[in-house]
């Protein structure tokens, strides 16, 4: 991951992910960490995408 | 967040635009160690990251999670197949018409007799979605404006004749969850 990624506290932000039920999300949230991405400053490379699954929450 | 590829010549091709609640970095994880695209944040956002090594045992343990993951993965595959069909079967005109429909489904705001696309989009950016130059997009949009299919003001596109666009790309009336950016 690029160094510009800022690690934040792991909060339960993804309950509205429309693919997963809340109980399923709770299962994976325990193993998940969370980052904030600033517009246009964050790039995930192909290597990042091979190794990780990403769940997206847009702030606004 | 956009998933995109860049050719050796520096030409960008946007594979998909992701919004809140979407996921990426998925299917390849179980079959290969190669992923064909990069991802870039377009707006401020927060992202949950789970390493596939941690995800796999969870899928083994939680059948509900595994089924939901499979459902999502199937939906993404269907979306990709539909997009591929739209971009390849009816030339560049079909590709831009289908992209306009997708934009309307993802960012459209229904008005009396039209659909306003609330995402400001440059012609060059549209070209990135269909693998065309800005000049080609300019020409195609000019034709659509002349036929009063669309209008464009202040960088915002408005669709006046959705049926025309659907006809041009032989629309199969896929659900909105599939026909999206």
TrEMBL record, chain A:
This is Uncharacterized protein.
From TrEMBL, chain B:
Keywords: Activator, DNA-binding, Transcription, Transcription regulation. It comes from the Bacteria. One of its GO terms (cellular component) is cytosol. SMART domains: HTH_CRP. Residues 1-59 form the Cyclic nucleotide-binding domain. Signal peptide: none annotated. GO terms for molecular function: DNA binding; DNA-binding transcription factor activity. Residues 90-163 form the HTH crp-type domain. This is Crp/Fnr family transcriptional regulator.
């Amino acid at each position: 991951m690029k160094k510009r990624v800022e690690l934040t506290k792991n909060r339960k932000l993804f309950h509205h992910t429309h693919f997963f039920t809340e109980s399923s999300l709770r299962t994976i949230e325990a193993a998940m960490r969370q980052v904030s991405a600033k517009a246009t400053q964050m790039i995930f490379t192909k290597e990042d995408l091979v190794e990780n699954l990403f769940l997206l929450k847009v702030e606004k | 967040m956009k998933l995109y590829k860049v050719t050796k010549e520096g030409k960008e091709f946007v594979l998909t635009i992701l919004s809140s609640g979407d996921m990426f970095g998925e299917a390849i994880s179980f079959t290969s160690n190669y992923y064909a695209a990069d991802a870039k944040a377009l707006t401020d956002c927060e992202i949950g990251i789970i390493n596939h090594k941690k995800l796999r045992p969870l899928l083994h343990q939680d059948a509900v999670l595994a089924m939901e993951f499979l459902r999502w993965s199937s939906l993404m595959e269907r979306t990709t197949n539909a997009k591929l069909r739209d971009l390849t079967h009816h030339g560049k005109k079909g590709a831009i018409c289908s992209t306009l429909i997708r934009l309307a489904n993802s960012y459209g705001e229904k008005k009396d007799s039209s659909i306003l696309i609330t995402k400001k989009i440059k012609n060059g950016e549209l070209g990135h979605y269909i693998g065309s130059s800005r000049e080609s997009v300019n020409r195609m949009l000019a034709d659509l404006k002349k036929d009063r299919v669309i209008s464009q003001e202040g960088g915002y596109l408005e669709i006046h004749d959705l049926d025309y666009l659907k006809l041009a790309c032989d629309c199969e009336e896929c659900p909105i969850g599939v026909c999206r950016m």
